[in-house]
Write a structure and sequence with these properties.
Helix 2 packs across helix 3, helix 5 packs across helix 9 (371-382) and helix 7 packs antiparallel against helix 8 (302-313). This protein has 398 residues and is an alpha+beta fold. The strands form three sheets. It has a seven-stranded mixed beta sheet with strand order 10-9-11-13-14-8-15. The radius of gyration is 20 Å and the shape is globular. The protein has nine helices and 15 strands.
Length: 398
């Protein structure tokens, strides 16, 4: 049976990337020993039963719409990440699981789910692999497990107007290289030091991550007075009261717009980011953005579609997202030495990944120049944080 997608179809408007592995949500978990493939294959079969949404394949529906169709072919455990995930090698599935040496890798089409859905599955797969009795994902039979937040228009308070952005010139970065893992890097610092920064600024992990990422951007790229915007994806599940849906619920975004003159003092910048976040992380703003995307899919003319796409995309320079501590369970966290996660779908992306006693920065810089890595190192060290650089291909210190 075909399930029509609305939220997923927005992410799949660019048909050229819906199955390219590195342009979709992915995660690599590096273990302290080589992966036991037989054990992982058994864990995979169980995790797919726990998370049946990972058995879907993305197919064409009518017009701009895509759909999900259950793929009855067994999902193979691959030896390396495929370039595209709906290939013959992968039995046409829109996700892939592979193991190489001490690394377990997972990738899924953004049309199927978002980073949250990926990490629910990843956590459950690791739970099964390490023999945790109480696995993480248990919501496959909940009424809201497959709700599409864009299927129906969402009510917005009468007279509500979306957040207005300052008029003026905005800084942007253009891709100068094709999406390539060689332009990714991981920095790791003691978590205690990062938490001290959060305490000193009175701000959340996400806020401090965004502030440091913006400060690094000003260190290497900003040359004149321009506004600069960081995009923070919003997981709308709780606000929309569908906490268990596997479908893409990260359609809306917070836009943190500051001027280059705001980027000198961490505490002041964090305070501004906190205020801007609070004004946007509301039901009305999330609903407004969701309705905008729905209207985009239902638009009847090319001009209307282009106008809505322009409003949705905005003028963002960087994406930042804190992925949180829940990616692995405490009983086996000591066996995970590093995590590399992201999606190479935007010119500059910074993900925060706390893991036991460390805070990781999983980054992608599509300029291919390596300048952002140097700048982020400089900013973090200026804040008193000691750093290790981790190779995202091996999970080992560089």
């Amino acid at each position: 049976m075909l399930k029509r997608l609305y939220a997923g179809s927005v992410l799949g408007l660019d048909r050229s990337r819906i199955h390219i592995s590195k342009m979709n949500p992915f995660a690599r978990f590096f273990l302290d020993e080589n992966v036991d493939r037989d054990r992982l294959r058994s864990a995979l079969n169980k995790a797919l039963a726990d998370c049946p949404y990972m058995n879907y394949s993305v197919v064409q529906d009518e017009g701009v719409f895509l759909g999900l169709k259950e793929n009855e072919a067994p999902l193979p455990l691959l030896y390396k990440e495929p370039d595209i995930i709906n290939c013959d090698e992968n039995a046409g599935h829109s996700c892939a699981v592979y193991a190489e040496g001490n690394m377990i890798g997972i990738v899924v089409s953004h049309v199927v789910t978002d980073g949250c859905g990926l990490f629910w599955f990843a956590r459950t797969l690791l739970d099964r692999y390490f023999g945790t009795e109480d696995v993480f994902y248990k919501w496959a039979k909940e009424d809201d497990h497959d709700v599409d937040i864009l299927k129906d228009e969402i009510p917005v308070s009468a007279g509500y107007k979306s957040i207005a952005f300052p008029e003026g010139s905005y800084f942007s970065i253009k891709d100068t290289v094709e999406a390539d893992y060689s332009n990714c890097f991981i920095l790791k610092t003691p978590y205690a030091g990062f938490r001290d920064l959060c305490k000193e600024t009175g701000a959340s992990t996400q806020t401090v991550l965004t502030a440091l990422s913006l400060m690094a951007l000003s260190e290497c790229y900003l040359e004149d007075e321009k506004y600069i915007t960081a995009r923070i994806p919003v997981n709308a599940r709780t606000v929309m009261e569908v906490p268990h849906t596997f479908q893409n619920a990260s359609i809306s975004n917070m836009r943190i717009t500051v001027s280059s003159g705001d980027l000198g003092d961490l505490k002041a910048l964090a305070s501004k980011i906190t205020s801007l976040s609070a004004s946007q992380n509301t039901r009305d703003e999330i609903a407004y953005q969701c309705n905008l995307c729905r209207n985009l899919l239902l638009s009847e003319s090319r001009d209307e579609m282009l106008k809505l796409i322009s409003e949705y995309l905005g003028q963002d320079a960087i994406i930042t997202s804190n992925l949180g501590r829940g990616l692995v369970s405490d009983p086996y966290a000591g066996h995970i030495t590093a995590i590399f996660a992201g999606a190479l779908m935007f010119p500059l992306m910074v993900y925060g990944i706390p893991l036991r006693d460390s805070m990781g920065f999983s980054c992608y810089d599509a300029t291919g120049k390596g300048e952002y890595k140097k700048a982020l190192k400089t900013v973090l060290e200026r804040m008193g944080l000691s750093l290790n650089e981790i190779d995202p291909a091996t999970g080992k210190a560089v």
